[in-house]
Amino acid sequence: MGWSIEEVSLGFRVAEFLMVSAASFYMYISNKNKATNARLDVLEKRIDDKLDVHGERITKLEGGPTHGHLDEVHERITDVAVNISNLSGEMLGMKTVLNLIHEHLLNGKNK
User: Is the dihedral of CA 23, 25, 30, 34 positive or negative?
Assistant: First the structure.
């Protein structure tokens, strides 16, 4: 039971057709996925941009603080912290002077 050359040739052609079909189908699906991913990336960016715009609009409409307002508050808090630090240093100096005066008065009376 041998196979004739025509049967072997037909088998190779069928195998070749199946392999080319499989490769073509794979390329079609692969390219379709790339195109879909590209469209999804564009849509995602557009949605993010619109969300940013809507967020800014809502903030303006509600009258809530913006980043600029928060920056101003941060600067004011920093200024207050610096002033408190300066006052703390001055109070420490006054304490030292008062201790020296107190010591002088106490030692002066004992002599």
Answer: positive
Q: Where are the domains of the chain?
A: 1-64, 65-111
Taking CA atoms, 108 is separated from 32, 100, 104, in Å, by 98, 12, 6
- Give the up-direction half-sphere exposure of residue 92: CA atoms within 13 A in the CB hemisphere: 6
Which tokens in the block code for residue 17? Answer: 């057709």
Rg (CA), the chain: 42
- pLDDT tens digit string along 29-88? 888 888 888 888 999 999 988 888 888 888 777 777 778 888 999 999 999 999 999 999
